[in-house]
Every structure is written in C-alpha cells, then in structure tokens.
Amino acid sequence: MYVDHAFSISDEDIMMGTSYTVNNKPPIKEIALAVSLLVCGVLGIVIGSLMAYNHVGGDTAHGIFFAVLGFILFIPGFYYTRIAYYAYKGYKGFSFSNIPPV
Questions:
Q1: Predicted confidence band at 4 (pLDDT cuts at 50, 70, 90)?
Q2: How far apart are CA 7 and CA 24, in angstroms?
Q3: Helix (H) or strand (E) holding 50
Q4: 100: how many CB neighbours lie within 10 A of its CB?
Q5: What's the confidence (pLDDT) of residue 11?
Q6: What is the pLDDT of residue 57?
Q7: Would you list the domain boundaries of the chain?
Q8: What InterPro entries would the database entry show (predicted)?
C-alpha cells in the first residue's frame, strides 16, 4: 500500500519547525474596519427600511436596495466585531489572530 507523505503533517514536523510567539495585541485597522462596517450596515438597514416604508427618497425599491446593502455590510462587521470583543474579554477560543489582516 502506497502512502504519500508529502502533504501530511506529523508531530515530528510540528516539533521540528521554527518556534514562534503568538502576537495577541489588537489589530487597530482591522477592528476599525469591522466597527465601521457594523455601523454603516445598521444605518443602511434602518434608513433603507424607513425609505421603503415611508417612500422617502424614491420608490420602495430604493429603500429595499439600501436595506439589502446595509445587511450585506452588517454581516461581516458584526462577525469580526464580535470576534474582537470576545478576544478582548479573553474568552476561550477567541484571539485577535482570527481577524484577517487588511
């Protein structure tokens, strides 16, 4: 039976690698981007819903468009802001390294 070990990771590979330290300081730019996406998303949902309901700034389609755009901005903003908050509070399993660099 042939086993290709070229792409396997064993305990020896992990032990032989270079040592590294975990940098767990908060990434300011990434957190600022996440918070701004969250705020813009909430504003887009609220303003879009008001536009669609009250027919302000055009017809209902414009309001629905802004609400959907706000929802698209809200999802990653909420996700990464939540990760940053939990990492700041020190919850197990959450680290600032889980936030991708900008």
A1: low
A2: 29
A3: helix 28-54
A4: 8
A5: 58
A6: 77
A7: 34-98
A8: TMEM230, TMEM_230/134
Task: For residue 32, give the amino acid letter.
Answer: A
38 with 77: CB under 8 angstroms? yes
Two tokens at 54? Answer: 């009250």
So what's the pLDDT on residue 19?
53
Summarize pLDDT for 41-90 with one digit per residue, the tens.
999 999 999 999 988 777 889 999 999 999 999 999 999 999 999 999 99
d(CA 83, CA 96): 7
Between CA 100 and CA 87 the distance in angstroms is 14
Distance CA 87, CA 102 (A): 18
Contact 97, 39 (CB under 8 A): no
Q: What's at 68, amino acid-wise?
A: V
Task: Measure the CA–CA gap between 55 and 19, rounded to whole angstroms.
Answer: 60
Look up residue 61 and give its two tokens. 């389609």
